[in-house]
Write a structure and sequence with these properties.
The structure is a homodimer of 391-residue chains.
Chain A (H helix, E strand, L loop, with lengths): L8 E8 L11 E5 L14 H5 L9 H8 L3 E6 L33 H8 L5 E5 L6 H6 L3 E4 L20 E5 L2 H12 L11 E5 H4 L4 H15 L4 E5 L6 H27 L7 H10 L2 H21 L4 E6 L12 H21 L3 E6 L8 E6 L5 H12 L1
Parallel strand pairs in A: 2-3, 2-4, 7-8, 7-9
Antiparallel strand pairs in A: 1-3, 4-6, 5-6, 5-10, 9-11, 10-11
Protein name (chains A, B): Amidase
Organism (chains A, B): Bacillus selenitireducens (strain ATCC 700615 / DSM 15326 / MLS10)
InterPro entries (chains A, B): Amidase_CS, Amidase_dom, AS_sf
Chain lengths: 391, 391
């Protein structure tokens, strides 16, 4: 019998007990169905994947760390097909219901993890974030979400998407627990790092918002920037952020095809709308284009490093617009995806840690969100900064 | 500047940070001002005690265990003078305000610890329970409270009252945290102990209630007894429970004078009403009377052990009546104390662990409480039973 009225789960009852007590004692968590759990077969959001893969021989180390800190794993969650979407609609396994407003999509690809957390079914949930797959659903569902520095949390035992950008991320309803999961998965903070003293409010990122959205975020931005000594509004790049999206998509698509092209060709899986087209696009990407994109990425990283000094935080909106309605036509979905990725590509291309913080609005309006980014590797200090800001 | 509008604290700001992470991570607790904290001077509820004692050289091991499990010690709390009362009124340090209804006493002697928990100022609080000093204030303030098996939690670094009955106890607002504190202070449960299969509903204990009070507790008693295979109503002794109180008071008074008589004679401290008379009574107790009381206690323990088989729980009301009003005359207070101790002496004389569980009533009526007692040493299993019953 299912109690999953939100359609968040692939297997609601799969349970792994904690291995000992720790700071996540009595906390329950759900896991995006792309993490290996000993004896469990993943779907990766596609029934052909499920049919063509054996049960996992070992549990992903990231999950083991959580079990060793006292948390109980309860349930695997729906993901967009092959994690290759930011929308949260899955033609095979259904669209998890956005707990804030069922007429809105939950966001993806870690859709079920966001919904399990947002609906209060679990204390926290684990997802993956390559192009925004934790940050977007967190913001659509009114949650705290974290994407760590690239390489900071082990991806062993996690079905890959695009290795240059893949990360393990998580969702919570409060900042303290977001930090606690970070303590378990990331360990100690960097020794001798300076306090954050400076906040850069990314003018080119905020310019993607309407005035109404901009105004809705201003008090959150002010309370954040008032916690540091100085803050300034400035462009974070002379490029158009749309160019960053193109660079990101070329590298991402190429790596996705590297990881999954052979399987796609061998099994010709039945993909839903959008996913099919994206895999087709990925197959066409040429090595020369990837080489050029990687060169541009290095230049971007150099320029961003100049801004992101060790004591500096960056503030951006998490999404450029309102959470979209369920069932939009594919071309509309793609337009939203393109706009959203102008913001998510910032952490993506630069490998930076990013926390998204929900900003509630009155009058039944869906939540918006701001994000704080920190220099690479300062994950623990960023999470602790957000706890002191929000709790 | 004080934020302690409930008058729960002696020193609200005294803080000891956790020594590492653990299952009490992010939990805060307050401590009855009879526990040694390195560098801190205890009051034991009396200003003469404070003046005549040096700061503690070490922190009580029970507190150290909590700090090592991730909890933060925040504040020392008001206690009845010399812990020698069940009422919660202290002429020197004030009467902590019962968070349920300020016209009612909070109960004592761990009054401030109960109020700090009940008012939500701390997640849990530590007290001591000799004759009911955790169980009574827990029930008056609508809280979960625990008195462990005698000898189960270290009393090192705790100002003694009466060695035969002294225990360290604690208050929480929910059963899970009551159990978690038990896991930290008591350690693992006994190996190979049977499940609880039988509940004894103590008829002679329930007969102390009015019909209205009795009816208010019945649904809680039923939900408890339905969790075990069989239950029966029976007298737990052929004695009058009033005799048990007399036996308890003789041994308690004698030991209190052994512990503190010399100090009382040397300092002639200024005691409030009730306390003064009780110390005077304690001074008069003769060795022959104590020997006789101890003989009777052993007989009681034998008879109770026949009832409390390893698989058996006992259910009693925690208090015999309503939480009393603030400022009653001393002779009225003594009458209530005498009646209440008929129930608290059961665990006291037999060294049994006891959990008190709040029973809320509608219509602005103060909470009542039932208690579950287990065989000596089965503290962890009792706490886990209560969690499965209440959470």
């Amino acid at each position: 019998m299912t109690t999953d009225h939100y359609g968040a789960f692939i297997d609601e009852s799969l349970t792994v007990e904690p291995q000992k007590g720790g700071i996540l004692h009595r906390k329950t968590f759900a896991v995006k169905d792309v993490f290996h759990i000993e004896g469990h077969r993943n779907t990766a959001g596609n029934p052909h994947w499920l049919q063509s893969h054996a049960p996992a021989k070992a549990t992903a180390p990231a999950l083991v760390h959580l079990l060793q800190a006292g948390a109980t794993l309860k349930g695997t969650t729906v993901t967009d097909e092959m994690m290759y979407s930011l929308h949260g609609e899955n033609v095979h396994y259904g669209t998890p219901v956005n707990p804030f407003d069922k007429s809105l999509i939950p966001g993806g690809s870690s859709s079920g993890s966001a919904v399990a957390t947002g609906a209060g079914l679990r204390d926290f949930a684990i997802g993956t974030d390559t192009g925004g797959s934790v940050r977007i659903p967190a913001s659509y569902c009114g949650l705290f979400g974290f994407r760590p520095s690239h390489g900071k949390v082990s991806l062993e035992g996690v079905i890959p998407l695009a290795d240059s950008f893949d990360t393990v991320g998580w969702f919570t309803r409060n900042a303290a627990l977001l930090e606690d999961v970070g303590e378990v998965l990331i360990g100690d903070s960097m020794p001798d790092a300076p306090d954050f003293k400076r906040a850069v409010i990314a003018r080119d990122a905020f310019s993607l918002l309407t005035d109404t959205q901009h105004n809705a975020l201003m008090s959150a931005v002010r309370s954040c920037s008032s916690k540091v000594k100085s803050h300034e509004e400035q462009r974070i790049t002379n490029d158009d952020l749309g160019d960053w999206v193109d660079i990101f998509r070329v590298i991402q698509g190429y790596e996705i095809w590297l990881n999954h092209g052979e399987w796609v060709k061998a099994h010709e899986p039945d993909f839903g709308p959008g996913i099919r087209e994206r895999f087709h696009m990925a197959e066409q990407i040429k090595e020369a284009d990837v080489a050029e994109a990687r060169r541009r990425q290095l230049m971007i990283q150099d320029a961003t490093a100049d801004i992101m000094q060790p004591d500096t935080l960056m503030i951006i909106p998490t999404i450029a617009g309102e959470p979209p309605a369920v069932g939009l036509p594919p071309e509309e979905v793609d337009k939203i995806r393109q706009r959203t990725m102008k913001l998510t590509a910032i952490a993506g291309l630069n490998g930076l840690p990013q926390v998204t913080i929900p900003v509630k609005r009155g009058g039944g309006l869906p939540p918006l969100a701001i994000s704080i980014l920190a220099p690479k590797g300062r994950d623990r200090d960023l999470l602790s900064f957000v706890t002191s800001l929000c709790d």
